[in-house]
Amino acid sequence: MRNLFNRAGKSPAPALPAASDGPGVLQKDSNETQIKAYFCKILELSQASEAFPVNLDDVYPLVYSAKGKAVRALKVNFIENVDFITIAQNGNGGKFAEITYKLSIPCLEWFIARKVRPVFEVYRTVFHQVAGPAKALTQDATPVTREQLQYNTQFLGAAIENAIRVIDYQAQTLGSLERKVKELEAKVFAPDAISPAPVPVQAIKRPRASLTVISRKEREAAGCHKLGLSYTEIAEIQGVTPDTVRQRIARYNKKSNIDK
To answer: Is the pTM of this model over 0.85?
Structure first.
């Protein structure tokens, strides 16, 4: 079992209790003693000013069947550099660099501990200094020591700082989105971006026929007139008045002269 708690310049930490075979220190079948020993070690690291003392590899098997699923859920529900950090390890032999995910204490609680009731009960006894429900009914409450009170205050302060960071990050993201919306509105509603209003179909006028184009009625009236028919007779044939026939013949003669 690898020891994840050695730090440069510090004496080696005692080895954690062995869990079942797998990629992490803790597994789904880890017992209460193993889980509590791990949480106590994490508590010591956090008291030593470790902002992100939890290695994701050590705890994800408690909830997730694969590390990839845990990483995706972590990135969706939590904020990098606020709730967790990433550390790229150098690849060996041409292999890709492995990324280590380190979690804060609040992230450990909400991402892992609270999803498994027995694990959360152990977590409470270590970090919240709250006895289990069964013990609370049979034993008197233990007085809180000055060290416990000081740690609880520090823990609460760290939780508040993390909450402020999350709010600041969300405010920055919202401000960025608002700026992008305003930029898009400025582009869409700019004077040079507004296209002219479409012209109604009724307002589109068809070009008039050329003055030299002779209509069929005009040609018919002129032809009948050349055959000797009177205006009245031609009017009866075309179903118009004699004056209309006279105008059609006049237009025919005028257009014929223009074409010549």
So the answer is: no
